[in-house]
Predict the structure.
Amino acid sequence: MEIFGHLEKTVGFAPSWSFGGGTALMLQIDHRESHDIDIFLDDPQILPFLNPQIQDFAMTRRPDEYKTDGTQALKLAFDELGEIDFICSSAILDIASERHDVRGQIVDLETPAEIAAKKVYFRGWNLQPRDMFDLAAIAEHHGDDYLVSALRECGRERCQKALDVVEKVNPKAVETVIGQLLYRDRYSHLVTAAQAITHRILTESLSDKAEHVGSED
């Protein structure tokens, strides 16, 4: 990536980062189209060096919009192409990523388990229909136990907040939003089933059948 090339020239080293979010998940389970890119960094001091608006370095295409909170996140938006989000966040799981070739570049691609855990840990309080679809697709592709094990690492409090959202949101509203996603035909049944599957997974994550390693109680 051009931005990381500039960063390495500026600070003299290549930062540690991983590729996560919906597009990273798409590359692994091919459940829906996604064009936005989520890059996770473990050092917030790196963030200012990634902002082409501040650094004024050359890019093949300049972003059409910039958004940053200055410390934890930077969003670069490209009209008709998508967005790149740089997010300062540590991993949730012990094994959070694996080395993969993505379009000719070897990167740390976050596992579906890590992607799911981050959804619940960081934004479970505002879980969106798209997130429910992604969680349901992971459960279908890898099995319930795989996903439950990952979500238990988020702790009971965060799983409960996510479950509260799933229980309160209108099912028809969820179906309408999911129905607008560019999902693969083989996952079409999840348009109506995603909310129920997410509810089942989160409920199981809160059960006492296994030790909650990441419990916050």
About this structure: Strands lie at 17-20, 37-41, 65-68, 73-78, 82-88, 97-102, 105-110. DSSP finds nine helices and seven strands in the chain. The chain has two domains: 2-110, 112-205. The first strand starts at residue 17 and ends at 20.
